[in-house]
Backbone:
């Protein structure tokens, strides 16, 4: 195998180092030639046709030699084999690819026997390997070459040099003829006018096998076609896409992922000839997951599926009809991991979500995917899908660290860009393209299950925050301020964030912000999570929140760059400002604000009605109040949402 891993020029010179000559073939030149051979450039590529007279066969080389990058790639093809060898000296690694068998093996150069290492390259002072240079090759022949004049090879006028080389005490002799396009007399298509490129190397010799004592005569010719300076990029020195190499070194870990994110994907199934689009939201710390997709098995309407891992309940909402079904979270899915048995589940970690956990991914290098530089990792898996235990290949593409992804309102760094999954056994060939990936901690508002509570208990509340709206909201923005407010309410009420809906703000003068929201009752069914503490019903949660506010304990921590001590500003809820809002479904222009202890019907609210008022910093009086009431009445004209305790739809 070794002779196939080194440049052709070197192979021809070392083929008989261990042989014994049986008859003089030539006599080494006694003096330095009048015209020394030009050698090889530092970096080149060529197609080489190698013919072996005694064996009656020919095979092809595609050789890519990169001295500057300290690497080499050789692809060999014949009737008997189809192999590629890649030498990466900086990583001290050799890849041997057998295309006929579809296999790849990695070898550590440092662990190759020293007797073979001398044919792979030279050792630097720090003990590392470096690929041979053309001067290293010429050292083998410089003292014995002779210039023979002009010869015509393949119809090309060539300068001809001959080398007669004796190898050590063995007396082995080999005659090598080098033919280069004649300088200033013959011009190759891509040749630099100041350089000469090889046309052919012819080798012949006779030696005795030192083990069996048999005589072996050989005569080989190597024709160089399309010899030119190196033009290819990194891809030629990388293993093929989708090919996992056994014993490959892991030189770069897969990127770390945030605990909350959102993205859209395009899923291309090459076998089924289908393209699907999916939108997903994931928040590990809040225990929430959402996926929007088209329901192919049903009526084709778009489906929104929300998983609340705090309760183990899945809410499946038909976005067209508005119908909602509550069911236990099933023990299968991108976001689901079973606990103890198939009845209880938990949300998967970010590493588990992307199937990084427990999988040995190795770094391949950098490739251009969708016109963007990406870093690539690959792994072979035997445990996916779990129930089938089949082999599959996973190839992940992440944007390179130098790429900045603009998601419209934010800039992201290293993000998932593509996933390719292939399984011959399972007949899978799927490409998943990622779009709009961004860290989504504030996207908790996207997990809205309020449509499922139209016919269930829900109550609307409000309380006041002291402070100038412009000073409080302006520095961080409305989106982040909403999120910080929600987290404070959730912690005080001791409920899942998914039970807080329609959170919005109004302005009361210039020194107060009115916070309004809808609190949903506990989950309508028992989920697939073993809850250590039962959910609080809406009455108890509201009472706990009341106590926090009245005691001056409900506060919102807002980032504040002007505070050099803590870096945050504390916004405290105004004591005794907490009220339940009871809206009269028949009202045309009024809304009743009752004391907290008052009871009354609750029918939901539309999110964000007053957001514009926060930005404008004023209240529009009776006109705005009439608009709010009018908009709030619109859901009454929509078909009522149904919610049931047993699953009737499919995800």
Residues:
């Amino acid at each position: 195998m070794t002779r196939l891993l080194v440049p052709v020029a070197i192979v021809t010179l070392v083929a008989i180092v261990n042989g014994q000559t049986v008859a003089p073939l030539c006599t080494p030149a006694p003096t330095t030639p009048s015209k020394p051979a030009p050698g090889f450039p530092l970096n080149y590529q060529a197609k080489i046709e190698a013919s072996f007279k005694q064996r009656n066969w020919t095979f092809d080389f595609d050789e890519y030699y990169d001295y500057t990058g300290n690497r080499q790639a050789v692809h060999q093809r014949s009737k008997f084999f189809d192999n590629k060898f890649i030498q990466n000296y900086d990583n001290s690694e050799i890849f041997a690819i057998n295309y006929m068998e579809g296999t790849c093996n990695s070898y550590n150069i440092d662990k190759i026997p020293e007797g073979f290492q001398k044919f792979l390259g030279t050792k630097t002072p720090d003990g590392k390997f470096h690929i041979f240079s053309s001067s290293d090759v010429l050292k083998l022949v410089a003292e014995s070459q002779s210039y023979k004049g002009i010869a015509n090879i393949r119809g090309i006028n060539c300068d001809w040099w001959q080398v007669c080389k004796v190898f050590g005490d063995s007396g082995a002799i080999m005659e090598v003829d080098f033919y280069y396009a004649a300088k200033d007399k013959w011009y190759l298509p891509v040749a630099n006018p100041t350089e000469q490129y090889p046309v052919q190397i012819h080798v012949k010799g006779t030696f005795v096998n030192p083990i069996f004592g048999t005589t072996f005569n050989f005569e080989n010719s190597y024709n160089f076609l399309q010899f030119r300076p190196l033009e290819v990029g990194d891809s030629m020195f990388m293993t093929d896409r989708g090919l996992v190499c056994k014993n490959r070194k892991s030189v770069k870990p897969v990127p770390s992922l945030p605990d909350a994110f959102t993205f859209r994907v395009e899923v291309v199934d090459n076998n089924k000839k289908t393209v699907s689009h999916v939108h997903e939201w994931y928040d590990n710390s809040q225990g929430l997951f959402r996926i929007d997709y088209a329901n192919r098995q049903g009526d084709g309407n778009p489906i929104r599926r929300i998983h609340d891992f705090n309760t183990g309940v899945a809410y499946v909402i038909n976005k067209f009809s508005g119908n909602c079904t509550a069911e236990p979270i099933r023990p299968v899915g991108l976001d689901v991991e079973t606990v103890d048995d198939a009845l209880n589940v938990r949300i998967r970690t970010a590493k588990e979500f992307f199937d990084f956990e427990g999988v040995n991914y190795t770094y391949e290098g950098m490739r251009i995917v969708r016109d963007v530089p990406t870093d690539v990792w690959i792994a072979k898996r035997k445990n996916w899908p779990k129930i089938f235990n089949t082999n599959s290949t996973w190839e992940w593409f992440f944007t390179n660290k130098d790429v900045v992804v603009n998601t419209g309102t934010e800039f992201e760094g290293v993000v998932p860009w593509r996933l390719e999954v292939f399984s011959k056994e399972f007949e899978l060939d799927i490409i998943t393209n990622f779009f709009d990936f961004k860290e989504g901690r504030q996207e908790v508002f996207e997990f809205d299950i309020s449509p499922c509570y139209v016919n269930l208990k829900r109550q609307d509340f409000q309380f006041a925050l002291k402070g100038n709206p412009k000073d409080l909201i302006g520095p961080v923005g409305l989106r982040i301020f909403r999120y910080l407010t929600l987290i404070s309410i959730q912690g005080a009420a001791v409920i899942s964030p998914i039970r807080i809906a329609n959170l919005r703000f109004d302005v009361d003068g210039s020194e107060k912000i009115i916070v309004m929201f809808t609190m949903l009752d506990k989950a309508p069914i028992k989920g697939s999570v073993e809850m250590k503490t039962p959910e609080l019903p809406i009455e108890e949660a509201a009472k706990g929140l009341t106590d926090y506010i009245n005691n001056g304990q409900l506060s919102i921590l807002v980032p504040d760059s002007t505070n050099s001590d803590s870096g945050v500003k504390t916004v405290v809820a105004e004591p005794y400002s907490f009220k339940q809002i009871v809206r009269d479904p028949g009202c045309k222009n009024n809304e009743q604000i009752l004391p907290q202890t008052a009871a009354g019907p609750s029918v939901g609210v539309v999110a964000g009605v007053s957001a514009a008022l926060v930005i404008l910093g004023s209240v529009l009086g009776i006109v705005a109040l009439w608009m709010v009431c009018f908009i709030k009445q619109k859901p009454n004209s929509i078909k009522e949402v149904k919610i049931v305790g047993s699953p009737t739809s499919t995800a």
